[in-house]
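Hi! If you just cloned this repository, the fastest way to understand the data is to look at a raw example. We've pasted two of them here, unedited. The first protein comes first, obviously.
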Amino acid sequence: MPSTAAAPPCPGPDPAPRGPTRFAVPAGAIDTHAHVIGTPPAFPFVEQRSYTPPAAAEEDYLAMLDRTGMTHGVLVQVSVHGTDDRLLRRVLRAHPDRLRGIGVMPLGLPTRDYEAVRADGIVGLRLNVLYGGGIGLQSLDEYGALARDMGWHLQLLVDARELGPVASTLGRLPVPVVFDHMGHFPAALGVQEPGFQTMLQLVQDGAWVKLSGAYRLDDGPGFGSTIALAHALMQAAPDRCVWGSDWPHVAHWKPMMNVGDLLDLLADWVPDEKQRESVLVGNAQRLYGFQA
């Protein structure tokens, strides 16, 4: 991973987020993927990172949820803060009914430390091999055991093309596995790309996937090459697909889209209204423990 000198600043999100224009957001909708980001030195960044983001404040995040029609949200520990989860936990504690969190924690801590973050609203752990600042896939069995003991799931930020060597291990973990951003690989390679097929098989066998991060898979206007991927994933497991905004869209240097644009894309990804409501509401309620 590049050093700090090679971690260029990235822009902030559109300051006026909006909801979709192509469908009505259903009551109880959940944005399952976003980040809050602090400002050094109070909240330092890890040295080995691939981008340097601006702050993404609690109040701006909550305003985004409100303006896009989201009842609940799931905050994911951002990679630039590494395992320093103080900001994430502070925000979760302030909004226990509205928010849940996905943490990044090392193995080998005292049980009371894991129990403390669970009490703050952490419902899963993220393993991240992209962008720096994360924990990789070297200890999948150990993380599976920890997640089982805590009642958590494991969320993976990994390029689907790298899944082959760990697919069998992932398939036998004793907890749910959630793939970020539809596999985070070039969507133009298509649904027959071997890595995507590996992920698709894991999803068919019980894994979950986030329909998110279109701009990370397709850098063209409209993100059209992502539609076939979403259709394949929905066909494989319509009850284990969830949606996330990926706000504030870190490590993105091309023209900034609005969250509403990404929600409008969901009308192409999941054209059926009842299935789309399941993605936005029912599926995410089950995975993250929100009340119906």
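Ok, and the second one:
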Amino acid sequence: MPDSSLTPSGQTFEEVWTAADQIPGWMTKAQAEMLDEHARSLPDGSAVLEIGSHQGRSTVVLGRVMREKKGRVYAVDPFIDGKLFGGRKTRDAFEANIRNAGVEDTVELVCDYSTKIRKSWDKPFQMLYIDGKHDYWTYTDDLKWRVHLPPGAPVLVHDCFASFGVTLGTLAKVLPAKDLRYVRRAGSMALFRVEKPSRADRLRILRELPWFVRAQVIKGLLRLRLRGVARVVFGHDSPYDVY
């Protein structure tokens, strides 16, 4: 398990999680701990770039850690209007949650499309978290943000082995990549580093495919309202998809 060591002010992961867990979202405690762990590992004064913030569940985790490190979180989200994304209403919730968590001076909202601003971006950051639109084209474009990262930097991807578009993008663009090494996952959240991968690193990606298939079968059972089957066969006792 990741280390829940103290930040300079004494804030533990459990305190960070207590603040974040009040916010609706699809990030589990284990995934939040992975974000917390790698944000804590950054030097003081560093920055994290987050793609896809929704109501701020993950943003608060990152913000609470980076506030203690006198760092920055760039939260990139266009907050598109419409029933699927929530638009202004979701942005209002995000901004309220950031204020309530006390990280409004640490988190800088960049209300724009990640694919639009990437090429002109000129602010350094040392960690990348991708949880934006989950289609193949957006995700694979978001992976290109790693060109801004220093060697060895962490790249975390939510729904990496649960979303069809993200998993396909990982197989197509990460598996053959010469500068991304797969490390491990927490649920569907994968940790990569900007490093040269070995053959074993590439094989570890392929070994996650049975977990992806399991996630898709569970998703199908839930759509068919067969939650009982998902519980008995797969131990998935939740009305929500695997994430």
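That's it. A detail worth noticing about the second one: Strands lie at 47-51, 72-76, 107-110, 127-130, 154-157, 181-186, 189-193.
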